[in-house]
Amino acid sequence: MRALSVPGGPAPGVDRLAEDLAALRSAWRVPGVGVTVVHGDEAAVLVDGAREVMTGAPLTPRTLFPLGSLTKSLIAALIAGLVDRGATGWETRHLTAVLPHGAPPDGYTLTQLLTHASGLPTYDMLLAGCADTSPGEAARGRLPHLVTVHPPGGARFSYSDLAYLMACHVAEETAGRPWHRLTADFLADLAGRGTQPGPAEDVAHACEPGPEQGFTDTGPPRLPGLSAAISGVWASAEDMVTLLRFHLYGDGRRGRLLDHRSLEHLRIPRTPAPTTSANHPACVTAEGYGHGWLVGRYQGDRVLVHSSSVGALRGMTVVLPERQVAVNVFCNSGVRHSPGRLHCCFRCAVAFSLVDALSGGQNDLACRLPAGEPERMAGPAPGQPADPRTLPGLVGAYHHPGFGSVRLVPDAHGTGALFRYGPVEGPVRRDARGTLFTTCPAVPGPVAISQVGTDRVVVRMERAVPAFEFTRTAD
After folding, report:
1. How high is the pLDDT of residue 9?
2. Are the C-beta atoms of residues 88 and 182 closer than 8 Å to each other?
């Protein structure tokens, strides 16, 4: 592993951790890793391994990763700036003109949207598969046709990407500018990139675990449509130095972006979060979700943490404000957090080893190693491929005014069928009870499909939303 100094000089002790960090990467079977460390005024970037397993091309300090859900803390910070300027307020009610059915008649507050207390489902498939490119298009054209599931506006925690999309739309409306312009101005003072990198750029490839302990290189990910609005910021380990300093101190490249009061507002836990979850480190005691952060305690000190997953590309940011320590980990394969287990996952092993070392604590490498073979994401769902010859009345295109269009088509070999929703697709399978379903990379669970008559299908896009009826179209 190579430790590279950045402006401000390397953090003390980082070089001594190089061998341990390389050992962690090997033990967890991760092809490549980029780590950023900020400690007070000092910083360092560590990189090791390959960004592409097929070619062996090395992962560099400038290899780009999508921030995915790590973008949430930036969205909340951008909106905090609008609140500071008096454009809106945290408890002002919004979205009364574009509400889904069942939403509160007086609208949602930014606090409800940004702390996952709105009751809105996440709608992963909608965000990944629709053709919209702006939050405003979705709010005006799609939401009136969709529904909420949980009682809105309460204290119940329900993680929702759609709620963050709606917060972006509120920012557009209050600022009078499109979201992509607002983010471009904000990122100009930081280091992220708001667009899909070009093919010649240094981009990490997603590496899915393959047979015989190998990997399948699935290439760089794409974030189409609405997913790009809330997850499409790209950054390298080197770029993350500026982002981590912003999260610690509120500073950008050209001066103060948020004052201490506004930073503290983002860090206050507002909505009770699960104390044990696959969405946060096992070593962190969760206190609640703030604005863009899970807030908790690590060894008695306040910690802000958030993870991300864009396919097999993973990230995690850990900020301990009182210790003036922040760490970010990018890797191109990995596992979920394992609740209740100290070693948890590779990202936690790396991040909290560095936190311990920089805080002068005991850095016990043995407790950060996996217990046996590293736990991987769930494999393909059980079931047999659906023979297109048994689906003569089902193949075709269907439309729903909220989701848009889906297609059921024969696969390239003519031996199976594919479900397509925009750029997202998955094989159609049939379970033991005869139910049709597909699994797509945009959602963790199966997408259920059933036929209603000759011109309609009912599709349940994800577990957290009801089934919706799609009507056959000419194409």
Report:
1. 45
2. no
